[in-house]
Amino acid sequence: MSKRNQFTGWIFVILAIILCTTLGEAQEPKFLQQNDATGLVVMEAENYTEIVTPVSTYWDTTSFPPGYSGTGAMQAFPAGENRHKQLSDAQLNAPYMTYPVYFVKAEPVYVWARASHTDGYDDSVWFGLDDSIEGEAPLQFTTDEQQYQNEWYWISHLMTPNNDRAILDVPSVGLHIFKLYMREPSFKVDKILLTTDESYTPTDVGPAETLYSSGVKSKGKNPESFSLLANYPNPFNPETTIQYRITHSEPVTLSIYTMNGTLIRHLFSRENHTPGTYTVTWDGKTDKGETAGTGVYICKLTTPSSTAMIKMMMLK
Fold first, then answer.
1. Domain encompassing residue 92
2. Is the pTM here over 0.70, yes or no?
3. Rounded distance, CA 314 to CA 316, Å?
């Protein structure tokens, strides 16, 4: 075999490893259902794993109205785009955020969202599990709840004649992907809560997130010792903020790759870190100073003991 063919072969092997690792990590749970009478799953909206954007509509971070929980909230964009009101269009084209949940109960859960709206044209959202939107009616601010404008309010009813409760069927114990789909532009969501308890009603900012890492013990490793969180905003243009957590003093490398495995930017390499949570901004440029094009990129965090990756989308 020629040296050129050997080199090409190794490139394909490396790309396969990168892509397989990325796909595998995308399926790891981020949230854990509580094994008690409430069966709670609590998720900060901005702590999604991925945003999928089939067309020009999208989700992005927002800091309005004030009083949000966590580091911010999410808003549907752009204003005036109403194409996703129809279920048939939403299932194919609506942008959605993903939240991998490990369910310990194969029971229906009641869906709550700490949400905000301005008027009757931005007051609803689709939700679903795994590959499809649940039912045929979205979660919405009811007529009686329309008065709560430009503030955070917990909603849990559907856009049906009787304002039925929003319920999600959980078919089996194990990992499922909760998804929140855009329906109306400017709808804002701060926190999502699922519960098996029909009478449970969240108040104020609600309970803390039920993170998978905080509920599962890992042999020989602190489950919260190494974390690469979702970047924000995502999609982004021209820059995005990346947050990560380190609890061991060790050298850290943070790099950006294209989806075919080409390294385009070293944000830093083997930089010594002490324990803590860090943020860094990628300005959307390569190591050559060129602006990256529209597309999906891989952010890879590496230490001598661990590796993590997330997908990021630049949308111009």
1. 31-210
2. no
3. 7
